[in-house]
Amino acid sequence: MSGSVVTIASLKGGSGKTTLATCLAVHWHLKGLNPLLVDADPQRSTSRLVERDQALGGVNVLEQADKDVWNTIKQQRSSHSITIVDTPGFDSDITIAALAIADIVLIPVKASPLDVDRMMDTVRTLMSGVKGWAPTFRCVLTQTVKGSVISRHVRSELEDGGFPLLTSEMHNRVAYAEAGLFGATPSLIAPEGPAARDIAHIADEADALISTKKALSA
Prior knowledge:
By secondary structure, the protein is an alpha/beta fold. The chain has helices at 17-30, 45-50, 69-76, 93-100, 113-129, 149-160, 174-180, 186-189, 194-217, and strands at 4-8, 36-39, 60-63, 82-86, 104-110, 137-144, 170-171.
């Protein structure tokens, strides 16, 4: 995974983008992978968490919300096993820059029809925003209720549309908000709990994607 870049991108606010980015960063930090978490969102949601008591467990955080962020990541990536980039929740040059430097892209999608429509806009940006670049991306269902009709329907709709999804999901759990009160994630507050397990499963799938991409490009 050395020097890999994972960009978390969505053109819709409230999809769970910052939660996913911070949770993955903390998970990999606890695994000893020395991740770098880049806050490229002008809203500074990630940076605000670092200002709270637990400061995301000591994860290295770099704040840069401008279109030159790709160059900074390029310079920093060799010093970290993995870099996670939290992008703005809207179409911007910053998002395009973060996509251009990514090895894989994860697109959080809240389990609702409106969010699915906006996710398709994100995919169009992925495919057209960076010429000559074929992204490896996966959609990640977030805020799902296990076994619910809407969660099953949204997954089926995405699969029928040909959109690749991770098998794992971020289920709707209060543990994320509770941990955020202290600038933490479930992996720090309750490492054996269900939310921490959800993140571990997502991280495992991301690891596999990165390994596959590196093997193909070797």
